[in-house]
Amino acid sequence: MKHSKFLPCSYLYLLALPLCLNLGCRETAKTDQKNAAEDTAAAGTVMAPEQIIDMNEAQKLFDTYTEQRVPLIERFEMPNAESEPFEAARFTSFDYATIKQYLAFIEQEAADAKVDISSLRLYFGNYPAKEELSQGVEEKDARKNTIFIVPTLKKDGEEYGFFIREGADGQRKAVLIIERGDAGPETGGLQAPEIRSYAGFMPAPMPLPGNQSLILNRGNSGPPPNNDF
What is the spatial distance between Cα 164 and Cα 109, in angstroms, rounded to a whole number? Predict the structure, then answer.
């Protein structure tokens, strides 16, 4: 019996099938790797917060402050100007490295005290006259606006600014700022204060020993730099 020198189509198919499967597996692997890489990249993407505003809205905010607040501030401060006309501060800036260090620091302190930071409050402030400035504040900032940042914790559905107090036993506890003048170093806690202030602050005679403030200030404040808005 003579054998055909031509292989049957079915036999050729069987020979080609492993090659096709191999190539197909390689393509599938490449596709899976690509999809995995895309999924990883997507998982690492930080979405913009809902509170981001566009530049036109920022311009409107800046212009409204220019029209409705700056003239009042400068008119009020002008009689106290010593040499040059008073120019209202329009911004406060902290370098990026300071902000990163600050966030890491307050997270560390809150973790030590076993509390969670709920929010960051940016309080408006005003530096006093030159002769009353605290150490570390430059004279050029006298009577100018500033901001200071206060971390808060949540207690009974409300948020309170807090600081860290270390007791005699070495335990670190979170104490509400509004309670800072009421409790000694060993009795600070999270009890809701009997006397409350809308601003979250009350006068205290002197800082108590063992207290660690979490309030950030000493930014660079000044008139508008004329390069943003």
Answer: 7
The residue count of the chain comes to: 229
φ/ψ of 124, rounded to 5, equals: -80, 140
Bin 9: left if φ > 0, else alpha if -120 < ψ < 50, else beta: alpha
pTM across the whole model: 0.68
CB neighbour list of residue 72: distance below 8 Å, 6 or more residues apart = none
Residue 62 contacts residue 55 (beta carbons within 8 Å): no
Instruction: Report the distance separating Cα 175 and Cα 164, nearest Å.
Output: 6
pLDDT tens per residue, range 36-78: 556 555 668 999 999 999 999 999 999 999 999 999 999 888 8
Query: Measured between alpha carbons, how far is 96 from 101 in angstroms, rounded to an integer?
Result: 9
Rounded CA gap, 88 and 65, in Å? 11
**At 43, is the secondary structure helix, strand, or coil?**
helix
**Burial category of 227 from C-beta neighbours within 10 Å (exposed 0-12, middle 13-18, buried 19 and up):** exposed
